[in-house]
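For reproducibility, we list the full input for the 3-methyl-2-oxobutanoic acid complex.
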Amino acid sequence: MNSLSFLVKKSNGEKISMVTCYDYWSACLLADSDVDCLLVGDSAAMVMHGHASTLPISIEQMAWHVSAVSRGAAKKFIVGDLPFLSYRKDLTENMKAVEALVKAGAHAVKLEGAAGNLELVNYIVESGVPVIGHLGLTPQSVNMLGGYKVQGRDQQAADKLRTQSLLLEKAGVTALVLECVPSVLAREVSESLKIPTIGIGAGPDTDGQVLVLHDLLGMNKDFRPKFVRQFLSGQHLVVEALNNFHQAVVSGDFPSLKESFE
Ligand code: KIV
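The corresponding predicted structure, in tokenized form, follows.
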């Protein structure tokens, strides 16, 4: 997959799969999978560092995650999230943030929202860096949105999202993430754009789907939003393996002679 494959896949009617990835060992697993592209999301702040929102993560930390992922999955198309406020400064600072992610190994950057970002999107694209847009529930604006809620439910909000998606396409984005929007709206937006949409909590009719790795692996049994399907009972399996290790240690069964040096 490369930046041109997004359009090709859409025109061929092929769905795009994207999964978040934040570190080397899971990047190695994803490198062996058929998943099309990896998102080093700023959700790393929550998933990897235990914060309550994505806001605390810095550009340096994002670049650190991107570089680990690029060492583990060198052949995958890697999208790096520009973190909160890192692209809302002057052009020089904004481009420094872009540069940090690209030099760390990202093939594209993602940023949230359209208002106030269109010129920058165009500038980044003209600098040779593909940009992925993100509309609907934009977690960096959680304090404006009053929480993590489905967006675009009323007519006015839906119209705004339609308009913003067209403006982002015109500004040059390669693809558009649609997070937590009603399925009908996501379908309409997807049909109105030439670029692919990649949904999360946006129903079945977007051109691709993205999920957080740990959610799809069932790594957190207490986090089960409606839009997540757990493809593995990860938490159960991992805790069982850890308990087996513990039991083997306390019983003296591990290590065996075969697992020891003479
Ligand atoms: O940071 C992230 O994981 C994301 C996805 C939810 C799309 O932006």
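The mean pLDDT is 97. The radius of gyration is 20 Å. Both points were considered when choosing residues for closer inspection.
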